[in-house]
Amino acid sequence: MTTQPKMRTAAENGEGGGGGIDPGLSTLIGNGEDLAPFVRHAFEAGKPEALLHQLRNIVKKKEVEIEELCKLHYEDFILAVDELRGVLVDADELKGMLTNENQRIQHVATALLSKLEELLELYSIKKNVSEALRTLKICVQVSILCHKCNEHVSDGNFVHALKTLEVIEKDYLHNVPLKTLRKVIEKQIPAVKAHIEKQVCSEFNEWLVQIRNMARKIGQLAIGQAASARQRDEEMRAQQREAEEQSRSGLAECVYKLDMDQLEEESILEFDLTPVYRAHHIHTRLNIEERFREYYYKNRLMQLKLDLEVSTAQPFLESHQTFFAQIAGFFIVEDRVLRTAGGLLSESQVETIWDIALAGITSILDSQFTRMDTASHLLLIKDFVTLLCSTLKHYGYRLTPLLEVLDNNRDKYHVLLLNECRKQVTNILTNDTYEQMVIRKEYEYKMNVLAFNLQASDIMPVFPYVAPFSSSVPDICRVVRSFIDDSVSYLSYGGHMNFHDVVKKYLDKLLIDVLNDTLLDMIHGGTLGASQAMQTAANISVLERACELFIWQVAQRCGVPVRLVDRPRAGLAAKAVLKASQNASFNALLSQMNSKLDEFMLLMNNVNWIADEPPPNVGEYMSEISIFLDSLMSTSQQILSLEAMYKLGISALDHVSDSIVAAFLSDNVKRFTVSAVTGIDNDLKVLEIFAEEKYEDTGLSDLNKKRSFRDCLVEPRQLVNLLLSNQPENFMNPVIRQKNYRALDYKKVANICEKFKDSPDTLFGSLSSRNTKHNARKKSMDMLKKRLKDFN
């Protein structure tokens, strides 16, 4: 049984010969570690044969160890084999028992296996049903959400519809197990979004149409509020002016208070921006906000351009209110959108739109103002433009260009206004009767006198009251007052805060270029009679005094304190101009008076210069002159001041005096007799008595002038006295001449004396008897003639 193991040499054990065993490799194999790194290293080093040789040595070494182990324990091994054989017998017995038991179990478990298969099948069905239920649950939830989305879309709840779509996309779509359903939903979601966008855009487009129609009403309401505020401001200023006027006149004490009942709350401008908000919100949720912003800006800009088109079918004067109301409403809406729409509009976009509107409005205004030829039309449009500015000022829009347009047309407006006033003044002066205005009622007195501060006294007169001016004066004052109101109306609420000096400048132009020039044209036109020229001079004097009232009215309307009006340099240049025109009118009166007197002096041609006897009555010319001067002085006493009446009387009597002397010097008078001189003397006495009475009765003597009316007749009186003197040669005596004949001129006296014939030249004149006195006077006259001839 046992065999003697063969002894192996050292070479067979791998311990000698050509190579040894690497300790590292031996350790790895002994520890059961992975040899892959070691093998990889051998191949990388290019020495796989050495590794194989070492591995063979290790194998041989292990075989030797096994043989030695078997040699040491071979008896134990035999015992183990025997035991193993016994175990095999037991195993066979056990195997038979197991076979029998297996057959029995197989017989018993056959029924159980069928039941198990049924159970497994049921578990599979359950799993499938659970999966189906899960799938159906997801599909039902998605279907419910889709249904809700459809309902929201049908009801117009687009925001909720988009939220539902977002839930489907984020939470359900990727979990839908049915591919077909998922594809359908994926296909319909963009379609639903497109439908929502289309519906929202449709609603927004309807809003665009609606808001454009509403913009006019919005603008009208806003401008109406501005007009009401302006009206309240004007009423307050009117109350202040009334209080100042009462305070100025000392009629009453002024108590200022704020009447709270007069303050009304402004109506709130209501308009619906919901379609804008919703469209903006939905486009934002659809991630196309920028596209909607561009769409909104583009469409509103197109609407603005349509609004800026002026209709040619209707005059701008009739359509300007709706035009500006439309613009105001447009920008009120834009301001609300800017402030509340969450970034739909930017401030730069609104400013760009406003700049476009400004350019269009200023161009339209310049064009329309150029075509206008009526001041009231231009004022109407200006007032509405300022209301537009006042309205949009509350919303922060830049209004300077609009106000500059109004300021640039200021001169044009006043030129038109001055032309209209010129027509009114011309009509007033043309239709004036130039008779003193008779006022019969107290209200007429207040309306025509007190209203313009034309009263001579603060005491109410007895009616009927005869005013020193004609009806044209209060009418002209009304024109001036209306001009001031219109001028202030144009300049107020514009770019100038202090326009008092501007109004005063235009008032000067009215009084100088219109009123004064019209008066001068009438004065120099030669159509005025003496009484008309007198009344014109009186009217101008009243208008000159009224300049103070005009200045006060300008200050009152401009809100300037009265203390500034009372300054020395605050007056009108027109006052001095009217003063000069008054002098021109007075000169025209003098010219008319002299012309009339010349007409009466022509009646001296009827005087018989060679009469033998003095005329029994006053000459016809002197009667006419006396009547005329009496009427002239009576009228002037009611109309003119004492100073003007004095100048008038002096001028009239000087002219009569010069005319009488000129009559003696006239070529028509070849010679005259003492009887003719006696008639002139009687006429002159009548005139002297008239002059003295008028000078005293009219109160002119109170002026203490150096020269009285009678002094104007000194030259003809001294001439007549010389001609009737018994010793006319005394004229050459310096002392006597200075005392009695100082007004006479040598040359005139010489010419007149040459014509003087003491008796008529008849055929028998030299034979007629003469008394001594007459002869002495004749000799003296002849002596005077000779001496004057020698003197000349």
Mean pLDDT, to the nearest integer, reads 82
Name of the CATH homologous superfamily of the domain at 411-586 = Exocyst complex subunit Sec15 C-terminal domain, N-terminal subdomain
The biggest beta sheet is recorded as: 2 strands, antiparallel
Helical content (DSSP H or I, runs of 4+): over 70%
Measured by DSSP, the beta-strand proportion falls in under 5%
CATH architecture of the domain at 411-586: Orthogonal Bundle
**Spans with pLDDT under 50 lasting ≥5 residues?**
1-18, 249-267, 760-770
The number of distinct β-strands equals 2
- CATH C-level name of the domain at 411-586: Mainly Alpha
Question: What gap, in angstroms, lies between the N and C termini?
Answer: 215 Å
Q: Which class do the helix and strand fractions yield?
A: mainly alpha
CATH topology of the domain at 411-586: Tetracycline Repressor, domain 2
Shape assignment: rod-shaped
Radius of gyration: 66 Å
| Strand order in the largest sheet | 1-2
Q: Give the SSE string.
A: HHHHHHHHHHHHHEHEHHHHHHHHHHHH
Give me the number of helical elements: 26
